[in-house]
Amino acid sequence: MNLRIPSFLQSAAPACLLALASSLAQAQLAIEITGAGTNRMPVAVASFEGESALPRAVTDVVRADLERSGIFKMVELGPGPMGADAPVDFGRVRSRGADAVAVGTFSPSGGRYQVQVRLHDAAKQVSLGSQAMVMSPNQYRTTGHRISDFIYEKLTGEPGVFSTRIAYVLKSGARYELQIADADGSNAQTALASREPIISPAWSPDGTRLAYVSFEAKKPVVYVHSLSTGQRNVAANFKGSNSAPAWSPDGRRLAVVLTKDGQSQLYSVNADGSGVLRLASSSGIDTEPAWSTDGMIYFTSDRGGSPQIYRVPAGGGDAQRVTFEGSYNVSPRPSPDGKSLVYVSRNGGRFQVTMLDLASRQTQTLTDSSKDESPSFAPNGRMVLYATEVGGRGVLAAVSSDGRVKQRLSVQSGDVREPAWGPQPRN
Amino acid sequence: MKYARFTLSLIAAGLLAACSSAPTTEGQGAAVEDRSGATGSGVDANRVVAVNADAKYGVANHPELTDPKNILSKRSVLFDYNSFVIKNEYRALVESHAKFLVAHPKMKMLIQGNTDERGSREYNLALGQKRADAVKKALSLLGVSEAQLESVSLGEEKPSCSDASETCWSANRRGDMLYSGEF
């Protein structure tokens, strides 16, 4: 589909994945831990053999990742590197109180490094496994995140999310930027800059594209943006408003909200904008669709008077109401395993992220803030990223699905909003 | 910016060369926006071709739309909290715009609905659409052609003021009427 991009965007859009670190110093997301789990596992990450020759310490990234997860307590081992295949002084590790210890070796290899990592159970004094990888010196953060993922998975049995990325919108003055950063807020890059609002970014399941709503045409239009090339196409620009894109699990279709036939209603289109189909019909507003792995589409509707969450089979069928408590339940996002639902609920004037167990119907308010918006699950289902307000400024926050672990991501100046947690990277 | 005025007859040939739509009877003595900054001495073909073909149907040709003394310069309809009903105090305003659009069938209008900042952005986008639709429906009932009207929503994204106060929130519960050339 043909797209006219305003001239000020033509220069910004292809710049998508260029590293803009120097100009982004002010806009760098700083992460802060505001709550941790009660029973954190004590873990040590030794300095790795050969690491002192690297320009930046990889294990610092690993320790920061594991500490930030809120489920590990980092134990200092003191100086002295420990190699991947050397015998471990378990007496020393145990005396510091660590239940597990990660050791490793960096071996130079033609300008790059072979990395060998091994994790030991310090109590049983056995190896829990090892992993080998290759890195160039400028990949120290990426490598650190991969090591963290390895340790996390060995110790919890679940995949880590340290190598994932997040998308969000940064508003500074009258300028809106759609940015992509690592899950820890580092390495922020601008995919799109505009003088008009950008909302509702949604990651394609393979992590290569973002769908979003831009107001650059003085009305909401849905675009699909390829992150590696900066190329984008219009996915929905019908008469009226076009908004709330959500990807199908196979990445081929988008659920969208259109007003071409009247009130805001659910449709689906191919990612290139073709093949528009109606998904549901109601006499009220239907919006904020989200595809679940169980073949359902969850959405917000005020067909019953107040905005509540409903679901409808993606292949068509009757809608079923999901939320009943309260008079304002919006922005549903099903968990990756399809067993629970996170959404924003208004409780006595406060808008808060709420978790619903779909089987037991139990609900839990996960936050103590009052202007929460746009929750989205980490791909392992353990954390929920959302937007909120602190001191009148928009910030991002993350909370574990049990409400215990809390983090905040903010920038020095400007509002951060509309977060979306990306999928696991595909290697 | 300076506006040079030319009579339509002087530039009709150039306009016909620039666009395929036929000139209309509206806009007798209508002005064409001059983006060169030159004062109106001599009409050259290049300048005429550069002018947006829609401009002769745009707001620039209708000073009454921007004259502060004319009701047509007023473009906002404010709504009550959680309401999508046009209040009586805006009846005369909506009727004036309907009359203008009926008299100028080539003029188009974009109606942008807005909401206050509280709650979900996407749900607010849908609520803003209801406000824009209410204005559109009123204009349609007054005889304006569907083809002249598009109702869209800006939700909570373009507040006219940004304090967290009721005064501000009420200013943001609004439908704005924009004419060709303004969007």
Task: Give a concise summary.
Chain A has 427 residues and is mostly beta strands. Chain A has helices spanning 7-12, 58-68, 90-95, 140-156; strands spanning 30-35, 41-45, 72-75, 100-109, 112-121, 126-135, 165-172, 175-182, 189-194, 198-203, 209-214, 221-226, 232-236, 242-247, 253-258, 265-270, 277-278, 286-291, 296-301, 308-313, 320-321, 329-334, 340-347, 350-357, 363-365, 373-377, 383-390, 393-400, 406-410, 415-421. Chain A folds into 2 domains: 7-29 and 165-421, Neuraminidase (6 Propeller); 36-156, Rossmann fold (3-Layer(aba) Sandwich).
Structure description:
The complex is a heterodimer of chains A (427) and B (183). Chain A is mainly beta and 427 residues long. Chain A has two domains: 7-29 and 165-421, TolB, C-terminal domain (Neuraminidase, 6 Propeller); 36-156, 3-Layer(aba) Sandwich (Rossmann fold). Helix content of chain A is 9%, strand content 44%. Chain A has a five-stranded antiparallel beta sheet with strand order 1-29-28-27-26, with no helix packed on it. A five-stranded mixed beta sheet of chain A has the order 3-2-4-5-6, with helices on one face. In chain A, a hairpin with a 5-residue loop joins strand 10 (198-203) and strand 11. In chain A, helix 2 crosses helix 4 (140-156). The longest helix of chain A is centred in the middle third of the chain and has 17 residues, at 140-156. Chain A is globular, with a radius of gyration of 23 Å. The two termini of chain A are 31 Å apart. Chain B is of the alpha+beta class and 183 residues long. Chain B contains five helices and four strands. Chain B has a four-stranded mixed beta sheet. In chain B, helix 3 (91-103) crosses helix 4. The longest helix of chain B has 21 residues, at 121-141. Chain A binds chain B through residues 197, 199-200, 215, 218-220, 239-241, 243-244, 257, 259, 262-264, 285, 287-288, 300, 307, 328, 330-331, 344, 346, 351, 373-374, 418, and chain B through 110, 112, 118-123, 125-127, 129-130, 133, 150-155, 157-158, 178, 183.
